Prior knowledge:
mainly alpha; two-stranded antiparallel ribbon; 23 helices; 4 strands
Amino acid sequence: MQTFRQRFFDFMSNINPLVIVFLMCVAFSLLTYIIPGGEFERHTVMVMGRAREIVVPGSFHRTQSYPQGFLQLWTVFMRGAVEGAERSFVIMLSAGALTAIIATGAINAGIRALIGKAGRLGIGFIPVIVFAIGLCGATFGMYEEAIPFILILAPLMLAMGFDSMVGVFILYWGVAIGFACGITNPYNVAIGQAIANVPLYSGAWFRVISFVVFMSITSIAIMRYAYRVRKDPTWSLSHEEDVENRVRLNTDAIAEDYAMNARRALVLILLAVAFGILMYGLMVHGWGFREIGSLFLWMGIIIPLVGGMPVKTMIEKNIDGMKSVVIAVVMMSAAQILYFILSDARILDTMLNYLAGYLGKVPEVVIAYVMFGISALTAALLGSASGTAATLMPILAPLADVLHFSKQIVVLAFQFATGAFNFWMPWDGIAFTVCSMAGVKFFKYIRYTAKFAVLVYFPTALLMLFIAVVIKYK
């Protein structure tokens, strides 16, 4: 007989995340009628070559609030869709391109060849990928750009005897936590230090240590799950879904159907070159969504044709891939509504000012934890590391001066906070996209990842902050 807790989670697993977002929109809308309005003055400064709206410390003042009812919100979804159009099209183009490329059979052939070599490492192959993906997030700030890799990782993990959820954990835990541990990440470390007036990329040695600690613990957690799945497949979080995934991805097809040949080898070479161009563009030229999407567009055309696919089939496969992520694109647009509600109502700054006001009333040892908490809540609401930095750093950094507290630790607490909630919140459109593309249940991912965050990520972040305070990290 199922317990109430089991029934609750089964019920939640079958709820569409859009329902959760809608209920949160209603709740946030009600808050706009309760919380008084207020705002900080802001001025525009150039940070790392880009204009940013920076909060003026001590400038908070009461203003009229603007409650957000139906008349104010009935067009807000389209606003989110338009503002997130570039990101949405990158996701659609990448899904289309990789679906067409997978249909050539080259990926499956490559996976079988890779297993023959990597299979010697077995479960030890997992930390290699986790560290590689995490390093991309920690150095040049890869995040949404990692989404397409799930179309390769999921079948790879299935073929190695694990499940699709292992691929999701490797990709999204790896990139999100690596991003938060930023060694030279321009979106949290560089912007945070620049606004806080801390020497750019100073204190990197401690961030490198933190990166190794976080990635090691993350790898162990994923390997533990993967080991249990390989030992008992029924324990898998995606056991039912992977029956269909194996058929869809052909991971159980006979080897002759996916033997390596010259065309498939050329497809894999071109795919590797394309991803190399992507990494080069991101790191050297600071590519944005426009360049990334254009690259995937041409990948989806040229590589399948080189693989021997007819033009008509190539187009159909691209469209099939785009169709598979439409609901995820809708989810990402809907999730932006939460920020718009608080911002348009002029209550977001009121909430931030209220939280920041407590920092002057706590012992020095707790300051880092409070800053971590405030930054984590703000990042969860804003959904943007750079936006959180521009909003919070002008408040927290001067406060650190008053409290004679290290601003380097302020930045460290902020960057750890960017990975606290964002990768497991029910309204996280990126997590939903990755789960959709991997063919796994979103709320099963959320439930397991929430445990990981609370039992592993949070204690590790607090421990590293405690060490930073003890050694007077500057």
